[in-house]
Specification:
This protein is mainly α and 488 residues long. It folds into two domains: 3-178, no CATH class; 319-486, no CATH class. It has 25 helices and four strands. The longest helix is centred in the C-terminal third of the chain and has 20 residues, at 383-402.
């Protein structure tokens, strides 16, 4: 165990909270001008010279995983390791002159060293089993300048060790220059991950916001700082009404600071901001904003092309249930692509830009559904394709209701009994579907796609009609015809 960690653990008896902060003061901890996450640990207490870090790393792994006991026996068995010669292989590895350096280099490359990494080093075998039931859970290892941050996570009093690790990360960022910290994005995300266990979501976002602002104040502009600010924006976007209000200010600051220059916003980053601004525009009824940012995302398939990276980097910002292009009846806000087409089409219809909607429907299957897309792209009128729309909707409803296509008519009966009830789990699906289908109907009527209009209207009235939307659609048709007549 690291000497400082051991002393702190004994002093606090493994407790966190006020007793933890008081103990830190006794070990040289101090407060910054602005309290963010309590006391800061002196940097020389938590980062070690290379030789010391290598020894701590090697001895900790050898002590806890280097010999067979009741716990490690089960861990090796779960890793599908032949138990007959485990101890001899362990002894051979740890007695090797190169083992200490091998562990050091591997831990530095991975930054997080767990039992599966140990198995790979000693036995040359990859395993999915990484859970440790021994005293040692895993080890974090990062280079900070010419020294090393090492934190050993123990299973006993694990909350203490997680809290201490968050405190170490916090202290490193507020004392070490940002450019000297290895993989700072990983570290700040680990900080966020661990403080979530001790704070509400709102407190986490406030803490991260103040933390990132403080890091910004202490460091010159850089690529990493830009990424920190984008992380901050993403947290505010998903963080509830109070934090959401700051979105525009935060985005404006990022755009102003990183509009040009060496670390100018990339297309991926502009895609993230455009997605947030498009959704925000729809939320506040700003049709022009929704259209502008939504079209940016759709053009050149930007959102599609960058979606995987965005999902990896910014997690919950993009709703990512599997898209269902074959389905017309669905929650359009549960997949980022379906959501963007939904809000853009809604905004275009409100602006009367029906030709633009029709173009989207012809170009993108996911803008409506497979059967409508096929109808719009057939060279000649095909009644069979029109009939396929209703059959697809029926199967769609059956799967929503009973997760099966076996008894379609019975499933439809259940749907018809429940979908208009506000308390029904089917209602949110019906609500969004009705809005989208009515937008398609307005488009088909305005662009004189009358066969498609009549077929979809029949389907809407049979399975999807909500009275308020239907009355709005009827008023639209009357108004559109009156306007057209007056122009003759």
């Amino acid at each position: 165990m690291i000497k400082f960690d051991e002393q702190l653990f004994l002093q606090t008896k493994g407790q966190i909270g006020d007793s933890f902060e008081k103990a830190l003061q006794q070990f040289g901890g101090y407060d910054e001008d602005e309290e963010i996450f309590g006391s800061i640990l002196p940097l020389d207490q938590i980062i070690l010279k290379k030789s010391e870090a290598a020894n701590v790393l090697f001895q900790s792994i050898k002590q806890h995983w280097g010999k067979l006991d009741l716990f490690t026996l089960e861990m090796f068995r779960s890793s599908n390791i032949d138990l007959n010669n485990v101890q001899s292989k362990l002894d051979a590895f740890f007695s090797s002159a190169t083992s200490k350096n091998i562990i050091f280099e591997h831990a530095l490359m991975k930054n997080v060293f767990n039992f599966s990494h140990f198995i790979e080093l000693v036995f040359g075998k990859k395993t999915e089993y990484s859970k440790s039931i021994s005293k040692l859970n895993e080890i974090y290892f990062y280079k900070i300048g010419k020294k090393y941050l090492i934190h050993i996570l123990y299973n006993h009093k694990i909350d203490f060790w997680r809290y201490l690790y968050a405190k170490k990360i916090y202290s490193v960022f507020l004392q070490a220059p940002l450019h000297t910290i290895q993989n700072p994005l990983d570290l700040i995300n680990q900080f966020k991950q661990y403080i979530q266990s001790f704070m509400t979501q709102s407190q986490v976002i406030s803490t991260m916001n103040h933390f990132i602002q403080k890091i910004d104040y202490k460091n010159p502009r850089s690529y990493v700082l830009k990424e920190f600010h984008l992380l901050n924006i993403s947290l505010h976007f998903i963080g509830g009404k109070r934090h959401y209000k700051k979105i525009h200010k935060l985005i404006a600051e990022v755009v102003k600071t990183w509009e040009a220059g060496e670390w100018a916003l990339t297309e991926k980053e502009e895609t993230l901001l455009s997605y947030i601004l498009a959704v925000d525009g729809a939320k506040h009824g700003d049709t022009e904003k929704t259209i502008a940012y939504g079209k940016y995302l759709i053009t050149n398939d930007r959102l599609i092309n960058h979606s995987i990276e965005l999902l990896i980097d910014y997690g919950k910002v993009l709703p990512n249930l599997k898209p269902e292009p074959e389905s017309l009846v669905k929650r359009y806000d549960q997949n980022y692509l379906e959501q963007i087409f939904f809000i853009v089409i809604d905004a275009l219809v409100k602006k009367g830009q029906y030709g633009d909607v029709l173009q989207l429907l012809k170009e993108y299957e996911i803008a409506s559904c497979t059967s409508i897309y096929e109808c719009l792209n057939t060279e000649a009128f095909n009644k069979d394709l029109l009939l396929k729309i209703e059959a697809a909707v029926q199967r769609n409803i059956a799967y929503i209701v009973d997760q099966s296509h076996q008894h379609v008519m019975q499933s439809i009966e259940k749907w018809l009994e429940q979908y208009k009830e506000a308390e029904s789990p089917l209602y949110p699906i019906a609500r969004m579907t009705s809005t989208h289908v009515c937008n398609l109907l307005k488009t088909f009527f305005a662009t004189e796609q009358f066969e498609l209009f009549e077929q979809l209207m029949s389907i809407y009235k049979k399975y999807l009609m909500l009275q308020e939307d239907f009355e709005d659609l009827r008023d639209f048709v009357v108004s559109f015809m009156e306007k057209k007549t007056s122009q003759k």
